[in-house]
Sequence to fold (395 residues):
Amino acid sequence: MADTALLAVVVAALAGLLAGAAFSASRRRAGERARPTFRSSPHYTEGLHCLATGQLETAIHELGKVLRDHPGAVEVQQVLSHLYREVGRVERAIEIHRALLDRKDLTRAERAHTLASLGTDFRKAGFLDRAAAAYAEALEVDPRNLHALAGQQKLHEEQRHWREAYEAQTRLARLRKSDDGLVQGFLQVEMGREAQRAGRAEAAEQAFRTALSLDRRVFPAHLALAAAWMERDPRRTASILEAAIGAAPERAYLAFEPLQKAYAASGEPSRFVALCERLVGQDPRDWRARLALARHLRADGQPGEALGLLLRALEANPHVLLVHLEVWRTLRALRALTPEEQRYVTTVEESALYFDPHICTVCRYRADDMLWRCPHCHEWNTFVEERVGPTAGAR
Ligand SMILES: [Zn+2]
Fold:
């Protein structure tokens, strides 16, 4: 398991434990029942230690021993079931949650938490209808249960029910008093795309605008708006894309193609050169701006300048195959290739599959392309280009 994923498990499990402690405190205040003294068990301490050091199976083992001596310890059951789910034994988690729900002495908060956890078990196991029912029941018990609301939101996302996901996220943000504009913005983009597919152009544009009013960094909203204006008003398209780059310069390369087109259509192709030069100046490792500029220059009949740019891009990014390919193409344009080398370049162009490796900054999931939502941890806007540094011993 990746370190970050492990950390997430530990944090989530500890959060469950703290929630349990809060429940027991509230119950003590309510004087409903005395708590078993499971905290004095050495297995409890050992279980927590294993949890903190990421030994999940041993933590399960130790906490299981605590439960054997103190079968009524609700919070230990909550944590244990969470751990079972995380190590892939969802059926055990479901069993524990069902047994907990049979108890008559649960507080309202405990019942809601257990129902929400059961919902997440079902969601992870792929029983989406049952998950929806469990979350709904949890919210009936406690309409402000954050775990159930967050689970419901994820469930809507997984089913691509974007409007419902947006509404759930908005409710969550209100309850948590958190700024979830970025996620809400991405959900608006999905709603806009849905409207586009249904031929409702105005509703789509409105959704993209709402996305940007929620958070300017929602890059696909800029791209979609720019695409919508390209035919009618290329100058406007260019200014939309320039604003996008201003809001999220690390995503600039995603705007290169439409921007180049928009500048050309508005009769100012040289502005693209100026933009790339500015980006290269800001980040000397930016091979994408160099590559785009080199292509532009080669097409403009300046292959010599293009080659210089590409060689500088290669120095900092020797792993990027696209730059290598562009060097060969530029050499071909400079008529510097022997017939054998020309055959080699043609073969490479025809046969090679070019990946653009990206990695999720939350869960380290790797993808061959830029994605807006991680297919593994389901977070939004977490992908960055996977960069390879010079190997040890290299210059
Ligand atoms: Zn991820």
Observations:
- Confidence is low (pLDDT under 50) at residues 28-32, 390-395.
